[in-house]
Amino acid sequence: MKTSVNINFVNQCLSNTTWSNEDAYQVEGLLKDSNQYYKFDIRHLSDFPQDKIGKLIDAKSNSDKILFEDDNNWILVDTQELIKYMKEHGLKEVKLEELLSKIEWNIIISKK
After folding, report:
1. In the prediction, which pLDDT does 1 show?
2. Which of 5, 26, 73, 109 has the most crowded CB, counting CB atoms within 10 A?
């Protein structure tokens, strides 16, 4: 199954990239100006019922970071923190704005 990925994020924000055929992540690489190597879920957001947009995340995902975006920013969230937060609170879905204030590891990068 071909996955639509966010190439713009990769070009703007990552270096030393390696593409993957894994379902849970699409690219590995370094955040620019960082020495941390991560596996990124860079799938585009999808449409869901009731005019919602988001991503389905597997609780067994082996990605390190999940990419979200709005008009002005790339938003990275730690995969395991997201899964842990949702399990601890019995959630099947969570709003990104809520999540950013509840977990420790997230990075917001301007699209410039």
Report:
1. 39
2. 26
DSSP 5: B
Q: For the segment 4-15, what is each residue's pLDDT rounded down to a tens digit? A: 678 899 999 999
pTM: predicted TM-score of the whole model, two decimal places: 0.87
Contacts with 48 (C-beta within 8 Å, 6 or more apart), sequence order: 54
Length of the chain: 112
Place of tokens 């301007």: 110
Residue 101 in tokens = 């204030």
Percent of the chain residues topping a pLDDT of 90: 55
Strands (E), the chain: 14-19, 27-31, 37-41, 46-48, 52-54, 65-69, 73-78, 106-110
